[in-house]
Every structure is written in C-alpha cells, then in structure tokens.
Amino acid sequence: MRGTWITGVLSAIAGLALLPAPALAADPDAQADPGARATVLLEACTTGVFAACSVDAIGVWGPSAAVAPGMVTTFRVTVHNTGTADLTGVAVARTALPGCRHTIGALAAGDTVSYICFALAIHDVTERVTVTGRAVCPAVDCPTVSVASDPVTIRVVYPPDTAPVAAGRGGAPAGPTLAQTGPPVTATLWTGLVALACGVLVLSATRGAPPSRDSR
C-alpha cells in the first residue's frame, strides 16, 4: 500500500514538471523600437509685429493666434529627435500649410531643428503638421517614425467696417459685404502678399535644445 502511494506521488510530480509554462502576455512597448523617436511642435506667432516673429524669439509663440484678414501668419515648427538612434530622411511634408513643408534630412539623436514658415490668413483654420523619418541602423528594414503635432488654431478677426454680415430678406446682404468694402481689405491683402513674398525667401532654422515652455 505504501509503495502504491509513493508511486502515485512521484507520477504526480513528474506530470507537473511536464506541464507547459504559462504564456506571458506580449508587452506592446517592448515590441516597439526604442531608438526611433521624435516629437514635432507647431506654434503660431501671437504678436502682430512681423519682425518680432523670429525663430528664436521668446514669449511670442503659442497654440493659437488672432490675426487680421489677409495678413501673414508666422508659424514655428520644432522637430526634436528624442530617441537613441540618428534619423535620416526627416521631413515635414504632411500638412495643409504648403509653406511649412520642409525637408530636414539627417537629425542626430538628441538634436533639434526649428524653422519658421508663413501662410496668409483668409479664414479661421485649425492646422497641424506631421514629421516622418527613418532610423539609421545596419539592418535593411530600419524602423520609421511618424508623429503629428498638436493642432494650432488661427482666428481671423475682421475690423468692424469689414466684417461679413448676415443676409437680409431674399438672400440679399443686410449690410456692406467684405467685397463691397474693398479698399481697406485689399490694401491689407497686398501688404500680406508683399510680406509673404519677402518672407519665403528667408528660411530661418536653428539646431540645439528644444524650446521650453518659458521661451514661448
């Protein structure tokens, strides 16, 4: 009887040893390559003084701005390589702001590039930009990065004598329209176009540490 009991215990121990180990749940973060990382920050210049919106200006950049119709809005784009691998083919191409599309190229780990770009303010908009790139690695299929910025809102503020008004009876305007008050708005638009033409000829870019919140 004792021999049968010992045999049963040994069989149970052997069976437990042969049981497969429980499968561990896959960690999504562990699957992602830690080397390919980047951030992109889109900001609008909050001052109406065009010359004050330089790429390294302090206290004039924010997530929103109010501008007059037809004036040039200045944006600052900051791309930071936050990973451990150098990036190549870095570009800001996916955006509805054509003037803010820019090819950066190589961006070493820890480096930051900032540049300014311009757009004419025609109506209220909310925009963002997306940066893409590829890690530099010995493998053929290196990891890529694609990151979108937080949105920036531009609000167009019309002067009292040029603001669009609601339509009256029969669809006719109840007051002067934007087109009928042409001289002030046209002059503003031409001013914006001239400033934009001058501005797009100069692309300011800096490399260094990313801007802090206190520097905006």
Which band does the percent of strand residues land in?
A: 25-35%
Computed Rg: 29 Å
CATH topology: Immunoglobulin-like
What's the structural domain tally?
1
The largest beta-sheet arranges its strands as 2-1-4-7-12
Helix/strand/pairing class, anyone?
Answer: alpha+beta
Largest sheet: 5 strands, antiparallel
State the end-to-end CA separation. Answer: 85 Å
| Global morphology | elongated
CATH superfamily: Immunoglobulins
Low-confidence stretches: 12-32, 172-204
Helicity, as a percent range: 10-25%
Any idea what the CATH architecture is? Sandwich
Number of helices: 3
Look at the structure and give the CATH class: Mainly Beta
N to C succession of SSEs: HHEEEEEEEEEEEHE
Mean pLDDT: 74
List how many beta strands DSSP finds: 12
Give the arrangement of secondary structure elements.
Elements: H1 2-18, H2 28-31, E1 39-45, E2 61-62, E3 64-67, E4 72-80, E5 87-95, E6 102-107, E7 112-120, E8 125-127, E9 129-135, E10 144-148, E11 152-156, H3 182-199, E12 205-207
Parallel strand pairs: 3-11
Antiparallel strand pairs: 1-2, 1-4, 4-7, 5-6, 5-9, 7-12, 8-11, 9-10
